[in-house]
């Protein structure tokens, strides 16, 4: 079995919400992973090695599970709210899937193969400086040296990058939740669920899981929906988003949908809500597409996510549309909203 097939098989078993017999042999490795992760976090909290503080507050948007959970739309929502409130944010990211070394600046025309798909999407949609690098501290320092006007950093992922001190942490779960609640490699968790008690907020991009929500204790929790109504031509999306259509104009046509995100079913469900009938083609998260991967749609119309569009635009040969989405955040009635919760942390400037 190819490496991608093995990873896909593991991921499916992780999210069956129980420890299947096929995962039992991995439990000793899971216990070892948990011990090492705990030791590493404990050393940083004790100051050995020293975590480093940037001269501006840092907001980390991350997750406890492996793979995408909807962090990118939340980062875009947060950046927009910060700009509206008078802040001048910048974004740093790991650049997963990119082949470049060191710290790189991400521009609208940067090849996704160099910096990764999500940072390129953030650069095109966010309208703020975006820098990527395995070392988040170095990425933040380089960003601030190039853009001294920035007064807050938003880190796309990096919850476990403890060397970077942060002012507030936001953890995102999608509809798959915490899976079987086991640590890697027997489950999808990078850290135990008790880690949630120390974060600034938990955001649910899908159905809440009561036991996971309870594990967060008094941590504020919010719900997120991703809304998209109009499709944009993939070729235009790479430029100025000029040509668009609604779902009604696509109904009755032969449609194919692809999604290379953490949970492809999330995108397919969104298309179904819009009343579309299509043939679904899921791919692995961060998949590097080739023209051959898209050949199945030669006799119809291809639909995809924004994350896929940044990679597929140069190789699409037929009619193809992307569905841009916006995050909508809601919280408990009468309680403070997510942005108000974040602002309170920024104004207090406490660091984790």
From TrEMBL:
List the Gene Ontology MF annotations in alphabetical order. Answer: ATP binding; lipid-A 4'-kinase activity
Pathway involvement? Glycolipid biosynthesis; lipid IV(A) biosynthesis; lipid IV(A) from (3R)-3-hydroxytetradecanoyl-[acyl-carrier-protein] and UDP-N-acetyl-alpha-D-glucosamine: step 6/6
Q: Where does ATP bind?
A: 65-72
Q: Does the keyword Nucleotide-binding apply?
A: yes
Main enzyme class: transferase
Identify the domain of life: Bacteria
Q: Which SUPFAM superfamilies match?
A: P-loop containing nucleoside triphosphate hydrolases
One short Pfam family name for this protein?
Answer: LpxK
Keywords for this entry? ATP-binding, Kinase, Lipid A biosynthesis, Lipid biosynthesis, Lipid metabolism, Nucleotide-binding, Transferase
Stated EC number for the protein is: 2.7.1.130
GO cellular component term, pick one: plasma membrane
Gene Ontology terms: biological process: lipid A biosynthetic process; lipopolysaccharide core region biosynthetic process
Q: Which InterPro entries match?
A: LpxK, P-loop_NTPase
**Catalytic activities:** a lipid A disaccharide + ATP = a lipid IVA + ADP + H(+)
Give the function comment from the record: Transfers the gamma-phosphate of ATP to the 4'-position of a tetraacyldisaccharide 1-phosphate intermediate (termed DS-1-P) to form tetraacyldisaccharide 1,4'-bis-phosphate (lipid IVA).
Family classification: Belongs to the LpxK family.
**PANTHER family per UniProt:** TETRAACYLDISACCHARIDE 4'-KINASE, TETRAACYLDISACCHARIDE 4'-KINASE, MITOCHONDRIAL-RELATED
Record HAMAP family: LpxK
Name-wise, this protein is: Tetraacyldisaccharide 4'-kinase
Which gene specifies this protein's sequence? lpxK
């Amino acid at each position: 079995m190819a490496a991608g097939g093995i990873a896909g098989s593991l991921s499916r078993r992780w999210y069956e919400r129980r420890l299947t017999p096929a995962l039992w042999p991995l439990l000793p490795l899971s216990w070892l992973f948990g011990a090492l992760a705990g030791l590493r976090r404990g050393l940083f909290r004790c100051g050995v090695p020293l975590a480093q503080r940037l001269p501006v507050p840092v907001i980390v948007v991350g997750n406890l599970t492996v793979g995408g959970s909807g962090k990118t739309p939340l980062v875009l929502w947060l950046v927009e709210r910060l700009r509206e409130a008078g802040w001048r944010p910048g974004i740093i990211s790991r650049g997963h899937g990119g082949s470049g070394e060191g710290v790189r600046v991400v521009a609208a025309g940067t090849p996704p193969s160099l910096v990764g798909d999500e940072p390129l999407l953030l650069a095109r949609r966010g309208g703020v400086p975006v820098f990527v690098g395995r070392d988040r501290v170095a990425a933040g320092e380089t960003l601030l040296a190039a853009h001294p006007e920035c007064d807050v950093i938003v880190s796309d992922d990096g919850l476990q990058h403890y060397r970077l001190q942060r002012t507030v942490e936001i953890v995102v779960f999608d509809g798959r939740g915490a899976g079987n609640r086991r640590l890697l490699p027997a489950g999808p968790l990078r850290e135990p669920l008790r880690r949630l008690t120390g974060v600034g907020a938990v955001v649910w991009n899908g159905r809440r899981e009561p036991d996971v929500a309870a594990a967060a204790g008094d941590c504020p929790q919010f719900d997120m929906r991703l809304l998209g109504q109009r499709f944009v031509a993939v070729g235009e999306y790479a430029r100025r988003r000029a040509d668009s259509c609604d779902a009604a104009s696509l109904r009755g046509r032969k449609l194919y949908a692809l999604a290379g995100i953490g949970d492809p079913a999330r995108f397919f469900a969104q298309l179904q809500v819009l009343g579309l009938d299509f043939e679904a083609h899921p791919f692995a998260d961060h998949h590097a597409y080739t023209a051959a991967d898209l050949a199945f749609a030669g006799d119809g119309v291809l639909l995809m996510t924004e994350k896929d569009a940044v990679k597929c635009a140069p190789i699409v040969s037929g009619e193809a549309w992307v569905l841009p989405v916006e995050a909508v955040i809601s919280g408990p009635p009468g309680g403070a909203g997510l942005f108000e919760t974040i602002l309170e942390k920024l104004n207090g400037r406490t660091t984790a």
